[in-house]
Amino acid sequence: MKRKKRRVAIMGINPKRFDRSQIKFFAYLIPVTVIMGLPILFIVFNAFKPLDELLTYPPKFITLRPTLENFRNLIATSTNKAIPMSRYLFNSVLSTALVVFFSLAITVMAAYCMSKKQYKLKNTLFAVNEAALMFVSVAVAIPRYFIVSKLGLTDSFWAHVIPLLAMPVGLYLVKQFVDDLPDSMIEAARIDGADDYTILWRIVIPNIAPALATVAILAFQASWNSVEASNYFISNEALKSFSFYMTTLTANAGNTSAMVGQLSGNAVAGLGMQAAAVLIMFIPNLILFILLQSRVMNTMSHSGMK
């Protein structure tokens, strides 16, 4: 009898140790994990490949002769330019931090108003936000340029920040979480003398932390990987982003390769530096997701339950 009970306990929803019943799950999950992890490994291996392996066809997945030459060339290239690589990196770090902070602040306040406040055109405004989910950034590039130009933000650092603050998907996601907060809890806080900002800081934000973590990741990726402002709004090279700098490596390789002693005049010399820059761009995204993955999973599971 005791053995049967122990057997049932082991085969529960969250067994404490391995059981044969789990083999079928591992048989499915391990191949999926490997397939999903291959692009990450390819980015890492690619950054340490010498130039001849980068140009090998068919391409090899694992580098046979890992080298740091791509990173050395990247540093040497930036030190021989009027604008060093560190300047582009600083612009990206600062603009991304501002975008994440202000996006979270605007999104949580807008979601609170859309969910718990009563006013005219409330449903209409939310319907406009839902309609905005259908448009990709390319479709609104021209209207966005006119807005940035009219606001006087062209050739300004704020051109990196202001256009990315509106996040329709973030508002839609956070509002779902705020909708689940009981109105009685909000009313009780009002009776105790709390104003809207106190309710937002003490009650709403702690209860929707998983959704805010997801919005933070989306805002970080949108800003960190963006080249729109550098391409269309900014002509001052000292204000452009690191992602823009990365895209120019191959194009400028003919001029920079002589400085680093590789294949002078040949644009393919920039492929190694670009591979190294891709890894540098990817690492912050990976670290942020690892740190916030549990909250993101909570958001995904919550969004599927009604």
UniProtKB/TrEMBL annotation:
InterPro entries the record matches: MetI-like, MetI-like_sf
Domain ABC transmembrane type-1: 89-292
Keywords: Cell membrane, Membrane, Transmembrane, Transmembrane helix, Transport
Entry's Gene Ontology BP terms: transmembrane transport
Residue spans crossing the bilayer: 25-48, 88-113, 125-145, 157-178, 199-220, 267-292
This protein's record includes keyword Nucleotide-binding: no
Subcellular compartments: Cell membrane
GO cellular component: plasma membrane
Membrane-related topology note: Multi-pass membrane protein
Chief subcellular location: membrane
Record has Transport as a keyword: yes
SUPFAM superfamilies: MetI-like
Alphabetized PANTHER family for the sequence: ABC TRANSPORTER PERMEASE PROTEIN MG189-RELATED-RELATED, BINDING-PROTEIN-DEPENDENT TRANSPORT SYSTEMS INNER MEMBRANE COMPONENT
Protein's name in the database: ABC transmembrane type-1 domain-containing protein
